[in-house]
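Posting this for the archive.
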Amino acid sequence: MQLSRRLSVPHSEIAMSAIRAQGAGGQNVNKVASAIHLRFDIQASSLPDDVKERLLALNDHRITQDGVVIIKAQSERTQEANRAAALARLKSLLQQGLVIPKARRATRPSKAAKRRRLEGKKQRGKLKSLRGKPET
């Protein structure tokens, strides 16, 4: 599976098995194993180490504590369509690990911005002070 121009994942690292789909669907669901259960071990994969670290740091419910991606595709009627859907979901998840997050640089507000903020607070305070009962 091609992730980028220079990076690909061999299909031998992706384990797929056909299982019966859950839910309503009548006789077809009960007889045919059309759902796909996909497993991909991040640690044992041929991905670069920095990509592995970013993938493991993702807060995604499909990634287990052991670093295994588990995807279940059962929305389509045919096994081939579910297989394609599972691979597409895996590809989009792995592409998230390719994105290098931009480093945050700490900044300070300017003096003018601080002054404007304090002026706004003063105006708001004056407005609120006028809401009280008038003195007699």
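The CA atoms of residues 19 and 67 lie 22 Å apart. Helices lie at 27-31, 49-57, 79-98, 111-129.
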